[in-house]
Design a protein that fits this description.
By secondary structure, this protein is α+β, with helices and mostly antiparallel strands. The protein has two domains: about 55 residues; about 60 residues, Protein Binding, DinI Protein, Chain A (2-Layer Sandwich). The protein is built from five helices and four strands. It has a four-stranded mixed sheet with strand order 2-1-3-4. It is globular, with a radius of gyration of 17 Å.
Length: about 130
């Protein structure tokens, strides 16, 4: 794991633990302190990545995350249908936009199952 990615994950986990079961007032104070800590450590430049990882970890509190990777945001009807089906199986949907997939969908259920129906994957398999 690259150092920046590791640092991002560590910071995000710390923030999740700091905010778990905190009152709204305590959340505001802890987030402000967290920002100060990033600044003191000269890590404000990775704050955006920390927030993304935090959001993923925070969603995982309520169930196993089903990460949906698409080239463009899903339409509301498609997203609702997907969320309904996955929620019934105990998953929380996290959508990630990645233009490199060109089209189609990649779905990662927790850390175990990956269903890759992206055009990029299909093109790569054709090359092999």
């Amino acid at each position: 794991m690259p150092a920046i990615q590791h640092k991002t994950t560590v910071y995000a986990r710390l923030l999740v633990e700091a905010l778990r079961d905190a009152s709204p007032k305590a959340v505001a104070m802890r987030v402000a302190n967290f920002k100060k800590m990033l600044k003191r450590a000269n890590d404000l430049k990775i704050a955006g990545k920390v927030v993304k990882e935090f959001e993923r970890l925070w969603a995982a509190r309520d169930g196993v995350v089903a990460e949906v990777v698409v080239a463009r945001p899903l339409g509301s009807a498609a997203r609702k249908k997907l969320e309904t089906r996955l929620k019934a199986k105990g998953y929380v949907v996290a959508e990630r936009i990645d233009p490199r997939v060109i089209g189609g969908v990649a779905l990662r259920l927790g850390s175990d199952v990956l269903v890759d129906g992206t055009i990029t994957n299909k093109l790569q398999r054709l090359r092999e």
